[in-house]
Amino acid sequence: MKLRVEDMAIAFENKKILEHVSLQVAEGEFVALIGPSGCGKSTLLNILAGVLQAAEGCFYVDDEKVEGISSHFAYMPQSDLLLPWHTILENVTLYGRLHHAKKQAQQQALKEFATFGLAGYEHAYPKELSGGMRQRAAFLRTALCSADILLLDEPFGALDVITRNDMQDWLLTMRKELQKTTLLVTHDIDEALYLADRILILGGSPASIVKEINLHEVVKSRDWLFTQGEQRKEIYSLLRGESHA
Ligand SMILES: Nc1ncnc2c1ncn2[C@@H]1O[C@H](COP(=O)(O)OP(=O)(O)OP(=O)(O)O)[C@@H](O)[C@H]1O
Ligand SMILES: [Mg+2]
């Protein structure tokens, strides 16, 4: 399914955060949204997920206007939000259980534990997992939600660089299997370059999309990433410039 955001605006306590934000994500496309801290990235995802309401503008899934909480989106918020008193299996099937299909949800989830690098931890509690495993569990929960569009808010933000790179490699592989329309929020330039078909840079105050980088034709690899000095520099100066605006 495709996503279209049109002329979105929101303010908090009379301070405009987002204004004239328009973007599109095509069916199956993976778009990274990058911007300085505090510019409104999570706010935008919260609006799409129906947690917040925009003051202006609207958004469409497959040309149908969406209002409030919609089953089109699977949202992975910035913190992993695993419930500490539930096992990993219970956590990842939370959405399924909310819809009264516990057994079916658990059977489906159990098949995915190995793919997500969580085999053997089905009945462990979140505190027994490493940071990377917790993020994978939160990601599994998001992926199991039978929604068509993934909204990922800095899914690897809290990880050390080695674990983060491993997770990015893993997500690049998963992308092909999941084939889902994805909007990924990150402040990591390399992560955006490595994972995305297209990068949108959010900047200014109030923030809007200031630049778009198309990477559809690129075959991604770590070696390719190492050659992207100029591109990285350009994004960096845009982010830095806008963050001082
Ligand atoms: N519910 C809220 N009430 C008031 N202000 C808010 C609320 N949510 C966000 N803000 C403010 O809006 C701005 C944007 O916040 P947001 O969390 O969207 O930024 P972000 O781009 O996701 O930052 P980061 O990269 O640090 O996660 C910030 O100044 C924040 O303080
Ligand atoms: Mg955020």
UniProtKB/TrEMBL annotation:
<dbReference type="InterPro" id="IPR017871">
    <property type="entry name" value="ABC_transporter-like_CS"/>
</dbReference>
<dbReference type="Pfam" id="PF00005">
    <property type="entry name" value="ABC_tran"/>
</dbReference>
<feature type="domain" description="ABC transporter">
    <location>
        <begin position="3"/>
        <end position="229"/>
    </location>
</feature>
<keyword id="KW-0547">Nucleotide-binding</keyword>
<dbReference type="InterPro" id="IPR050166">
    <property type="entry name" value="ABC_transporter_ATP-bind"/>
</dbReference>
<dbReference type="GO" id="GO:0016887">
    <property type="term" value="F:ATP hydrolysis activity"/>
</dbReference>
<protein>
    <submittedName>
        <fullName>ABC-type nitrate/sulfonate/bicarbonate transport system ATPase subunit</fullName>
    </submittedName>
</protein>
<dbReference type="GO" id="GO:0005524">
    <property type="term" value="F:ATP binding"/>
</dbReference>
<dbReference type="InterPro" id="IPR027417">
    <property type="entry name" value="P-loop_NTPase"/>
</dbReference>
<dbReference type="InterPro" id="IPR003593">
    <property type="entry name" value="AAA+_ATPase"/>
</dbReference>
<keyword id="KW-0067">ATP-binding</keyword>
<dbReference type="InterPro" id="IPR003439">
    <property type="entry name" value="ABC_transporter-like_ATP-bd"/>
</dbReference>
<keyword id="KW-0813">Transport</keyword>
